[in-house]
Design goal:
43% helix
Amino acid sequence: MSSAEPVTGLILSGGGARAAYQVGVLAAIAELLPVGAANPFPVIVGTSAGAINAVSLASGATDFRGAIQRLTAFWQGFRSHLVLRSDWPGVIHQAARFVSHNLMGIGAPVPVALLNSSPLRGLLNDKLHMSGIADAIAQKQLKAVAVTAFGYESGQAVTFYQGGGTIESWLRHRRIGVPTQLSVEHLLASSAIPLLFAPVKIGEEYFGDGAVRQSAPISPALHLGASRVLVVGVSGNPRGVDPQQPLQRAYTGQQPTLAQVGGHLLNSTFIDSLESDIELLQRLNQFSHLLPDGAPSRALGAAPVEVLVISPSQPIDEIAARHRQELPAALRLFLRGPGATKTSGAGVLSYLLFESGYCSELIDLGRRDALAKRDELCRFLGLVEPAVPA
């Protein structure tokens, strides 16, 4: 790769089951690429469930199309019991432990988690082949892959990365980069949604979902050498709404349910910081164009970074509400009390609905949204002529 050639980074944000949307976008990209094309993303960065997608893609980077096919089958075959204990004994036992110890202080210490996500460890150990990362780096099909987790004691967003060559670690306000050999433990830590899933110990510290304190989600990709980035978001709010026009909605005047409150908290964790970072990057790009010709823009930290964003064109909450009956009976009852099985509380449901019907619809939506930006994607990826979709 020549020094003048741009390095493309892929940003896969968090969001539990919402991350199925990312798989559809990647499937569309695989269709647009010529048969046998190399991995188009030398730098891959993921957070939360996006970290699982990122590492899965990086592990199969030597066969990009094959990696996407495996990732698609992985999500299309999802069932709740593969990710968390969704049977009656499992749900009741975990809820009782949470209430008795964490709320009432009774009994021995237990992880702070409303749900038991222990099945996910076995699933990842079975499906992911982490040695593929080193192979892809050795074959120059990958420059670096990174996942971000949040340290509960340090209060830092820690980006664990595995890469080739010399990639300097970084230290910024409450966010650092640490070189390491990635493992399933890093993925479990990055995807451990606070209060819902148990923290994971790495070294001497317990970690949780990386989106919690990730104030600059795009930054790790730039530290790893990316000069342009494709961001695949999981926002529940379709883009394109005119910000000058007030939203027309009917207000019920009812008090918010626990699920509504939780849904907004999850959205602020997984979505708001990414969208704010995109807006900041776009403003910095505008600023860089105002610099006089010949100004050392990169030395000033103002070199333009091309960014392409693909995010859902339909409200994900509404999609989740349509599929709520797919939940196992025990989980459905557990979530009914807080209001998560109601349309108004579907925000929480959209993160926890690890069922094939819901995930498959999100994959289809991601594919359609990506193909709707066919021309932009082809230009961004340097494809002269789009390939005919298979």
